[in-house]
Amino acid sequence: MEKLRRAVKQIAYTKPHSESLSAVQLSLIPLLSFASSLYSVALRLRRQLYRFNILTKHRLPVPVISVGNLTWGGNGKTPMVEFLARSLADDGISPLILTRGYGGADEAKMLERQLQGTSARIGVGANRAAIAASFLERYGYITFHGSSEKLSSDEKAQNASISDRIGAAILDDGMQHLSVWRDLEIVMVNALMPWGNHQLLPLGPLREPLSELGRADIIIIHHADLVLFALFLFPLLVLKNVYSNNFIGVKRLKADAPNVLQVQEKDAGALESTIRKVKRSAPIFFTKMAPIHFFSCRDISCKVVLEAVQNMVVLCLSGIGFADSFIQRIQRMGPAYVDHVDFSDHHFFQLKDIEMVQTRLRALESEFDSKPIVVVTEKDYDRAPEMLDRLKPYEVLVLHCRLQFLSTENSFKKIMKQHLSQR
Q1: What's the number of domains the chain is made of?
Q2: Please, which residues have CB within 8 angstroms of residue 271's CB and are 6 or more apart in sequence?
């Protein structure tokens, strides 16, 4: 299954009939194309059902911010959700995060750990309108300006403090979740791999047509800081270090150089121009993931400085939507050598995976006469900490990052508050 996912992903981010596709991948294209056509029909039908109120949109009594994207994983949705929740909480507005909890709820677990100590609450479940209703009933709510609304009961109104009451809701991965009205639509775009082959799932990476960017109130181009690195430095490292072996998903640095389609779309200015053709009026902001520190997988209270990987042999292990950005950030920290093992998004590490990684670590240790360090993302840690602990005696570090704006953060917050207050 993992091999099939990789094959489909490569098709999605490669020009049709490219020479880089194998015969097996080319044979999959007709089937994937037919499935994409069915998916397109289902999308249009679903939109019409909501348009004519056959399917109901629920209006929450608090402002709703949707954070979503047009393509599958790796666009920075969850880091943006954390940023929004932290910003609202800092302003005295208790946010309710509504997330589906896909893939073992790894993102929900990560948000819960990251936002511990704030007023943010997290509701997990597919029916986000029902989840929201239960939280609003339990905690009560206030308007964005802070004036009290009707609570679920007089008793709760007397006992609940203002800080306990929910003041806004955040829809994690909310763009395709049409059953909840939203007051602000934020769409995340991956600067490194924005639209792939421009086809709908499963032939391409698009969950909706590019024209649906027209629904966005704010557009965020994420991983914008890596564009120059990917265009100039990373291909040089590829040419110097091309190497592959028999392990599934293991490559040294980057065995498959970026294809023409990706390189053409990596320029942030060209990407912004493409977006403007669809949505001329929406403000566009640029963000990045800023590494803060590492923490030990076996003791999360143990913070480790970023310089810990300098001149070290590092193995990046991940099961996320876009592993390249993670690998490139580690490469920027100055390790002597970087290897990586990538799995598909939300992959739950199995014992066979851990054994394969251990074999690779022993090979690296033998080759470099130095014990390598394993580095994982927070999402991977929160999904399976007990499996990562099986990598002993090798050290496992978790990279802690925060979303940061490359453009003016205050302008973003001002626009956000204007949308919410207009409710």
Answers
A1: 1
A2: 189, 191, 194, 221, 265
